[in-house]
UniProtKB/TrEMBL annotation:
<dbReference type="Pfam" id="PF00210">
    <property type="entry name" value="Ferritin"/>
</dbReference>
<dbReference type="InterPro" id="IPR002177">
    <property type="entry name" value="DPS_DNA-bd"/>
</dbReference>
<comment type="similarity">
    <text>Belongs to the Dps family.</text>
</comment>
<feature type="domain" description="Ferritin/DPS">
    <location>
        <begin position="18"/>
        <end position="156"/>
    </location>
</feature>
<dbReference type="InterPro" id="IPR012347">
    <property type="entry name" value="Ferritin-like"/>
</dbReference>
<dbReference type="InterPro" id="IPR008331">
    <property type="entry name" value="Ferritin_DPS_dom"/>
</dbReference>
<dbReference type="InterPro" id="IPR009078">
    <property type="entry name" value="Ferritin-like_SF"/>
</dbReference>
<protein>
    <submittedName>
        <fullName>DNA starvation/stationary phase protection protein DpsA</fullName>
    </submittedName>
</protein>
<dbReference type="InterPro" id="IPR023188">
    <property type="entry name" value="DPS_DNA-bd_CS"/>
</dbReference>
């Protein structure tokens, strides 16, 4: 493979890629959980939540590709297994939650985990002058904060 000379030191690229693999693990784990909840939601808000969860998991499915491609552009390997994701993510698996309210709460918590982990990567990205990754993080944080707000609003009485 040719040397990568994009103006970001190798050590910084490796550290940023590791942080992006964390984001990838979180995003994929949240995707899987959201998809499961889409299939299994019941109750008076079934149609609303079924459609909302579909929109959310569809967006997350697209996001994992963007994140993984940025990891590759930095010269690292993008993680691609459940076991690798499980080692990195703090997002719990769907363990048979049946209440729509509990599903909303768990997805809200997952969104906030993604937000915190993406935000934690910023200092390194800024130090390395990695504008492309900073842009990716800004977009992801903005989207996850909006989704978290919408989920939080559903939990208000």
């Amino acid at each position: 493979m040719n040397q990568i000379n994009i103006g970001i030191e190798q050590a910084d690229r490796e550290a940023i890629a590791a942080g992006l693999n964390q984001l990838l693990a979180d995003t994929y784990s949240l995707y899987l959980k959201t998809h499961s909840f889409h299939w299994n939601v019941t109750g008076p808000m079934f149609n609303t939540l079924h459609l909302m969860f579909e929109g959310q998991y569809t967006e997350l499915a697209l996001a994992v590709d963007v994140i993984a491609e940025r990891v590759r552009a930095l010269g690292a390997r993008a993680l691609g297994s459940y076991s690798a994701y499980a080692k990195l993510t703090q997002i719990s698996e769907d363990n048979g939650v049946s209440s729509a309210k509990a599903m909303i709460q768990e997805l809200l918590e997952g969104q906030e985990i993604v937000i915190r982990n993406a935000r934690a990567l910023y200092p390194l990205v800024q130090k390395a002058d990695d504008e492309a990754t900073a842009d990716l993080l800004t977009q992801r944080i903005q989207l996850h904060e909006k989704t978290a707000w919408m989920l939080r609003s559903l939990l208000e009485e």
